[in-house]
Amino acid sequence: MAEVLMFHHVLGLTSGMAAFAERLRTGGHTVHTPDLFGGRVFDSMEDAFAFVQSGEIDVDERADAAAGALPARLVYLGVSFGAMSAQRLPQTRRGAAGAVLLESAVPISGEWAFGPWPDGVPVQIHGMDADAFFAGEGDIDAARAIVDVVDDGELFLYPGDRHLFEDSLLPSFDAEATDLLIARMLAFLDRVDG
Asked: A GO molecular-function term, please (predicted)?
């Protein structure tokens, strides 16, 4: 059984994100879902980003506190905006069991980098091949660069242009892609736990 620390997307810890985490729990894994926004959930990306940029909360501080309360051997999972924390923590905190980044990735070199990818930490990255955020803003290139240097690195692309396709309560939900994503993630979690 893997222990997973999941960071939600920018709309908050929606009930769709809770349902996603529950599907991983059903696979036999422990999934922690800290609410980085203190209960706030948003209907639009614009309102969500305005809240994040307002300085009312420090997302990194809250993510660090969530990780610090748990054992070091975690699989970090992040959805879109949450992938920033799920990538930063295994790159800066020792002992990670793995990372799963959904619909976002940060370059591992250059101005935005958190540093090199740690040796022995497997990673899976998932996103839609025509998603304006993932494919259109360069995250897909960062994802390719990561899996090129990680011995156990996988990039899975799904046909489509939806962002947040795994949140079952959003209009962007894609049940077929999510089922495949869950199956691939469960296989990954079983592997890193073994």
From this structure: hydrolase activity
